[in-house]
UniProtKB/TrEMBL annotation:
GO BP, sorted A to Z: glycosphingolipid biosynthetic process
Gene that this sequence comes from: A4GALT
Protein's recorded name: Lactosylceramide 4-alpha-galactosyltransferase
Annotated Gene Ontology cellular component terms: membrane
Species for this entry: Amphibalanus amphitrite (Striped barnacle)
Pfam families associated with the record: Gb3_synth
Keywords per UniProt: Glycosyltransferase, Transferase
Protein family per UniProt: Belongs to the glycosyltransferase 32 family.
Single GO term (MF): hexosyltransferase activity
Transmembrane segments: none
C-alpha cells in the first residue's frame, strides 16, 4: 500500500523518473517514462535475462539500479539524486521518506511527528507492504494520521484492522 499525498494531476506534470530507495538503489515502486523512452525496454530485457524467483530485491530495485547505472553512466555507489537526459532520479524523500529497515516507525505513535516531518515533501508514502502486512496501524501513528487525511474511505472501510 502507498499513501498518495499529491493529486494525480501532479503526477502527470512530474518529470519522467524514479526515486532512490537508498543511496544504494533506485526503487521500482514509482516509475514514469515518456512514450518513446528506451528505458522500459532495457528494464524488461534485464529482468528477463536475470530474473531470480528467490530474490525480490534483485528483480525490482536491482534491475532498475543496474540499468540506470549503465545507461546513465552513473559513477557507482553512493547514488545521488541526478538527471539522465530527460529522466530524473529523485531523492529518497520524494517517495521513500521512511526506508524499509525503518518501516515500524510508520506504526509507532511515539515516532509520528518524526515520520510526518520526513514525508512532508513526499509525493507518496511507501508503506513497505511486504513488511507491514499483518500489522495494524494504531490511532496516533503516522500511518493512521496519513490515512485519516488522505485515505479516509479506506480507513473507514477497514474497521478496526487498518
Amino acid at each position: 500500500m502507498n499513501v498518495s499525498l499529491q493529486y494525480a494531476v501532479h503526477y502527470a506534470n512530474m518529470d519522467d523518473g524514479a526515486g532512490l530507495e537508498s543511496e544504494h538503489s533506485v526503487a521500482a515502486g514509482v516509475l514514469k517514462f515518456a512514450r518513446r523512452s528506451a528505458l522500459p525496454g532495457l528494464l524488461a530485457a534485464r529482468f528477463v535475462e536475470q530474473y531470480d524467483p528467490s530474490d525480490w530485491g534483485a528483480n525490482g530495485p536491482g534491475v532498475v539500479t543496474a540499468v540506470l547505472l549503465r545507461r546513465c553512466g552513473l559513477g557507482g555507489l553512493p547514488l545521488p539524486p541526478s538527471h539522465c537526459g530527460d529522466f530524473t532520479i529523485f531523492g529518497s524523500r520524494r517517495f521513500y521518506g521512511v526506508p524499509w529497515p525503518e518501516w515500524r516507525l510508520l506504526l509507532t505513535p511515539a515516532q509520528r511527528d518524526t515520520v510526518l516531518e520526513r514525508v512532508d515533501a513526499s509525493y507518496v508514502v511507501h508503506t513497505w507492504g511486504l513488511h507491514i502486512s499483518g500489522h495494524s496501524a494504531p490511532p496516533g501513528s503516522a500511518l493512521y494520521q496519513l490515512a485519516e487525511q488522505h485515505c479516509p474511505l479506506a480507513l473507514a472501510a477497514s474497521g478496526s484492522r487498518f
